Automatic annotation (TrEMBL):
The active site is at 710, 753. GO terms for molecular function: ATP binding; ATP hydrolysis activity; ATP-dependent peptidase activity; sequence-specific DNA binding; serine-type endopeptidase activity. It comes from Eisenbergiella massiliensis. PANTHER family: ATP DEPENDENT LON PROTEASE FAMILY MEMBER. HAMAP family: lon_bact. Belongs to the peptidase S16 family. SMART domains: AAA (SM00382), LON (SM00464). One of its GO terms (biological process) is protein quality control for misfolded or incompletely synthesized proteins. The lineage of its organism: Bacteria, Bacillati, Bacillota, Clostridia, Lachnospirales. ATP-dependent serine protease that mediates the selective degradation of mutant and abnormal proteins as well as certain short-lived regulatory proteins. Required for cellular homeostasis and for survival from DNA damage and developmental changes induced by stress. Degrades polypeptides processively to yield small peptide fragments that are 5 to 10 amino acids long. Binds to DNA in a double-stranded, site-specific manner. It catalyses: Hydrolysis of proteins in presence of ATP. Its main location: cytoplasm. This is Lon protease. NCBIfam families: lon.
Length: 805
């Protein structure tokens, strides 16, 4: 039914325009009519049916009035979106019904009720271009066949089979909807044709208008039968499931009622025997409430729940739910806080003791401590540590908790997709419980712990709610002082909680959530940093874990560096720790089996414990080559070098891309080729270069998907090298995006990329000029031995990359 609009208040009698119906013949002698048209919301009219509906839109009312002034015929077509107020040709279905208006009744508030009879199916070819205040549709009437296609007139065997099958299905459907069956089953015994019967059936069924539209669009009787039969099958299955669910709920209610009566009788017997212990739990709750540190409003709410618990029977199901709710409320630390450490020197010592490097993170934590000591306020920032796996993000949070003398709570968000995991379940659900945030507070026992939200970029969403949106209130320092958990129902103050989140990448974190956090980058470790971390932390940790000490097992510095370079390939140190643990286990077995007094692991005997070297580092090519350029890429486990190869062969000017390249890299390749073609005159390229030759761009390791915006200049250089037959310097690596005009744009992950270039033995790295500030922030340890050249134009890239002939 249509909704009222502002235009519905106009005087319709004054704005009625003349309408002249016209018929025209197209090239195929198809009859096309121009008929006033009404777009219906949420309903479908079928031929042969009499139905009434209300109109409120001015356009629709004018169309009806114009039809009444001519031959009383109107075209009725359904809207795809019922909320659309001014539909055009693309926003309505193209199959509708040509109908005869039987009666028009004006109702209050400028509403018109129309009674129509469906005449014929018709296809909407478009709306008239003439400017009118109502829709005029150009329609083509569709002749509905009287018999199945291919069946001779008078041969009704197949039609009779369809009729009987529909009757059986409809009788089964009517067993769930008896009122419909009383009237419609009579139609099967009448003289209705198969097509009319099917239209009558779908109109009588309580289904959505889009299913009725599907029947309307099925002109052929065979197709219409298949559509209607499928709808009947689906509706019968839905009705069966609904009936089963209703019976289950009814049976459960009868069982609960019986149990309630029996429990009440048992309670009465206990009271008569003087064994009434119903009040014991309530008294215990009352004592805990008297000791609870909480505000007046919180205590009043808990007192109200205790009084309600007293009035419930001890054995009732509702009593057990209320008991669990009261226990949760009384265990929460409403106003209980722990005293924070304000000794900055002690905090600095703990951070330096537990972590090597990470200067930016340590500096930010110490700044927070200093501000908190001066302001004496409990407001805490929301910090997000972003970096590759194994770089120590989680252990940083533990160290921060120890340095601040805070309780530590870790909440892993990886894979959480239910909003109730954050906000809690409503108590009306069976098995309801508070969300993870409130549960973490209950575990901490104080309202100001350090709460680690681990893997915040791994949360997902489904039909149960958007988990990341639920975190918005938690991580907003302006509103989390009244965080409302669905289970607790009382606002919980989270303003004094120090939230630290961890993530591998900010790309997967929704923008509104990212805006509420302070991002601190935890970048990849250099080989030297890994060496110090292993020497100062990991070896001692694994020795203790495997029952050894420094006297029984020693690992030389050379062996440690060899493990880092030849057995691990990661941004962090997690795999490095595993390899040290593997050495410890094998050493423990040697100590017991061979009765050795001690085990010494060096670079020479390392293969006895870890096997052959597993990591073959990408090294610079031995000689300059044509069409081969070394690019740099960032991955979740650090930086890597990426070799781009281009071959040029006779063909038709096609470009082939292989190596599982993503859409962004494909676009970069096409952009680079367009740039080369635009500057072909500068390199004196033959005119048929791009029409008589094909270009094949390949990036090895074809099984590994690759994508990103920083390979533009690499592919462009490789293509130009292949076209001009100019070799590219083997010791040059590059990274940067390219534009159509040859500008070099900024990239991310520069530290990891420079590390990869240095490991591969590259001497020169071409970096976008816009990344100059990032280059300055990178430590000298990484930049030493690298000639970093900042480039702005593709001409500079080519000048530094091409070898001199």
């Amino acid at each position: 039914m249509e909704e009222n609009t502002k235009a519905g208040n106009m005087n319709l009698d004054e704005i009625i325009t003349d309408y002249a119906s016209s018929e025209e013949q197209n090239g195929n002698s198809t009859r096309v009519l121009q008929v006033p048209t009404v777009a219906l919301r949420g309903m479908t009219v079928l031929p042969g049916l009499v139905i009434h509906f209300d109109l409120s839109r001015t356009k629709s009312i004018l169309a009806v009035e114009q039809a009444m002034m001519s031959d009383q015929r109107v075209f009725l077509v359904g809207q795809k979106d019922v909320e659309e107020d001014d539909p055009d040709y693309t926003k309505v279905y193209h199959m509708g019904c040509l109908a005869q208006i039987k009666q028009v009744t004006r109702l209050p508030e400028n509403v018109v009720r129309v009674l129509v009879e469906g005449l014929d199916r018709a296809i909407l070819r478009g709306f008239s271009d003439e400017e009118k205040n109502y829709l005029v549709g150009e329609i083509e009437i569709v002749e509905s066949p009287l018999h199945l296609e291919g069946v001779a007139e008078g041969s009704t065997i197949e039609e009779e089979a369809m009729m009987r099958n529909l009757r059986e299905l409809f009788m089964e459907f009517c067993s769930f909807f008896p009122r419909i069956g009383k009237t419609m089953l009579k139609h099967f015994d009448g003289t209705f044709s198969l097509g009319v019967l099917m239209d009558e059936l779908i109109e009588s069924m309580p289904v959505t208008f889009d299913k009725k539209q599907a029947v309307l669009e099925a002109v052929d009787l065979g197709t219409r039968y298949q559509v209607l039969a499928k709808i009947l099958y689906e509706e019968i299955e839905v009705a069966k499931i609904r009936t089963e669910l209703t019976e289950q709920v009814k049976g459960r209610m009868e069982k609960n009622q019986k149990e309630y009566m029996l429990r009440e009788q048992m309670n009465y017997i206990r009271e008569e025997l003087g064994e009434d212990n119903v009040m014991s739990d309530a008294e215990q709750f009352q004592q805990e409430l008297n000791k609870l540190k909480a505000g007046r409003e919180v205590k009043e709410k808990i007192q109200k729940e205790i009084n309600r618990f007293r009035s419930l029977g001890q054995g009732s199901a509702e009593s057990s739910v209320e008991r669990g709710y009261l226990e949760t409320l009384l265990e929460l630390p409403w106003d209980k806080v722990s005293k924070d450490n304000t000794d900055i020197k002690r905090a600095e010592q703990i951070l330096e003791r537990d972590h090597y490097g990470l200067e930016q993170v340590k500096e930010r934590i110490l700044e927070f401590l200093a501000v908190r000591s001066l302001t004496k306020r409990g407001d805490s920032p929301i910090i997000c540590l972003v970096g590759p796996p194994g770089t120590g993000k989680t252990s940083i949070a533990r160290s921060v908790a120890e340095s601040l003398n805070k309780k530590y709570v870790r909440i892993c968000l990886g894979g959480v997709r239910d909003e109730a995991e954050i906000r809690g379940h409503r108590r009306t659900y069976v098995g309801a419980m508070p969300g993870r945030i409130v549960t973490g507070l209950k575990q901490a026992g104080v309202k100001n712990p350090l709460m680690l939200l681990d893997e915040i970029d791994k949360v997902s969403s489904d039909y149960r709610g958007d988990t990341s949106s639920a975190l918005l209130e938690v991580l907003d320092s302006e509103q989390n002082n009244h965080f409302r958990d669905h289970y607790v129902e009382i606002p919980v103050d989270l303003s004094e909680v120090l939230f630290i989140a961890t993530a591998n990448s900010t790309a997967e974190i929704p923008r509104p959530l990212l805006d509420r956090m302070e991002i601190i980058e935890v970048t990849s470790y250099t080989a030297n940093e890994k060496f110090h971390i292993a020497r100062e932390h990991l070896i001692a940790k694994q020795l203790e874990k495997n029952g050894l000490d420094a006297k029984k097992l020693t690992i030389s510095d050379g062996a440690l560096r060899e493990i880092i370079l030849s057995y691990t390939s990661e941004a962090g140190v997690r795999e490095l720790e595993r390899k040290i643990g593997e050495i410890c286990r094998k050493a423990a077995r040697q100590l017991l089996e061979q009765k050795k007094p001690a085990v010494h692991v060096t670079g020479r005997n390392l293969e006895q414990y870890l096997g052959k070297r597993k990591i073959a580092r990408d090294k610079a090519n031995d000689k300059d080559d044509i069409g081969i350029v070394r690019g740099l890429a960032w991955t979740s486990v650090g930086g890597v070098t990426m070799q781009v190869e281009v071959n040029m062969m006779p063909g038709k000017g096609e470009i082939r891309l292989t190596g599982q390249l993503g859409d962004v890299m494909k676009e970069s390749a096409l952009t680079g080729m367009s740039y080369i073609r635009s500057v072909s005159d500068e390199y004196s390229l033959p005119e048929d270069t791009f029409t008589a030759y094909d270009f094949h761009i390949h990036i090895p390791e074809g099984a590994v998907p690759k994508d990103g915006p920083s390979a533009g200049i690499t592919m462009a250089t490789a293509m130009l090298s292949a076209i001009t037959r100019t070799p590219v310097r083997a010791n040059v690596a590059m990274t940067g995006e390219i534009t159509l005009r040859g500008r070099v744009l900024a990239i991310g992950g520069l530290k990891e990329k420079l590390l990869a270039a240095k490991t591969a033995g590259m001497k020169t790295v071409l970096v976008p000029k816009e990344n100059e500030k990032d280059v300055e922030e990178i430590s000298k340890e990484i930049k030493s031995g690298l000639d970093i050249i900042l480039v702005e134009k593709m001409e500079e890239v080519i000048r530094h990359a091409f070898a001199e002939k």
